[in-house]
Amino acid sequence: MRLDVEAAKADIEQSIELLRRRLDWEPALRKLDELNARVEDPTLWNNPDEAQAVSRERSRLSAQVEAVQALERDLADALGYAEMADEEGDEASLEEARAQLREIKERASRAELEALLSGEADGNDAFVEINSGAGGTESNDWAGMLLRMYTRWANAHGMTVDFLEETPGEQAGIKSVTLQVKGTNAYGWLKTEAGVHRLVRISPFDSAAKRHTSFASVWVYPVVDDTIEIEINPADVRTDTYRASGAGGQHVNKTDSAVRLTHIPTGIVVACQNQRSQHQNRDQAWKMLKARLYEAELEKREAAQQALEDQKTDIGWGHQIRSYVLQPYQMVKDLRTEVETSDTGGVLDGDLDQFMGAALAQRVGATRDAAA
Known about the structure:
Blueprint: H1 3-23, H2 25-40, H3 48-88, H4 91-115, E1 126-132, H5 137-156, E2 160-168, E3 174-182, H6 186-190, E4 195-202, E5 211-222, E6 237-242, E7 258-263, E8 268-272, H7 278-301, H8 306-313, E9 320-325, E10 331-334, E11 340-341, H9 344-348, H10 353-371
Helix pairs in contact: 1-2, 1-3, 1-4, 2-3, 3-4
């Protein structure tokens, strides 16, 4: 068989073997059988919360197993087609087989990345906080641009975005916003975006058309399941109410419906204003606080990821993870992975997969090095 076909075969087989190891293949198959049996048990649905959790776990594991099995089937088919074309000297068919192998290799690479989303909360929805940095209108506008970028990314991946809290800028953009992004592996993908983002451009707010540098921070934490126990002493939480701002009709700004919770031992602050009643906002804020405390516990367990921890705890503007340069040239560069592109418009429209994928690919490389 041709050398290029053999090389593609070796790469895909390596990916499949890595996927099998990460899944712990035989126990994963047994676990899937158990989950299938539980879903088929009608008594499970007497507890809707438990049923949803089991169904979600079954769907996730089933998708991972089926992805590996599909790669194996398609690889065998493509290799058989390539061998037949090679024997017959059919160059057109051989090129078609090469194209099939390239497509399978891309799927295998994607599956490798998705296999990394096996953390305790990677499959969950995500809370995303965006805060503008020092700089007034410039930074507020930049925070608004990031809000648009992540909303577009989520929509392009079939996810939905709910606004939980928003503080608009005085002239443009936003001072801060909290979103809930709902979709498969929302937290697993978005957690790679946590950190400080830097923008360099000719300011649309400067009549002298000078170049400005703006900063905004993005923090991401998972929406935790109700089955996860997070103990919070009510005495450790200070509750403040205030009048909501933004869209909302006559109700907004007439009652103190917005709620802010401060967890005194950790200093964690969450706020919610999107619901019409104080009771509803309080309930959502407690869920957000529970998620923040859960994420803090996850960080303690993941001491090996100290670099990420440093980025999330040190909010100094010198610790940006990515730069977006619009003037004097066009370039978006991730300072962690060195991935860069001149398609700034595409990135700001939500084309973030290359950056998210590269951040996860670093872990794929570490896994392969450790297995070598």
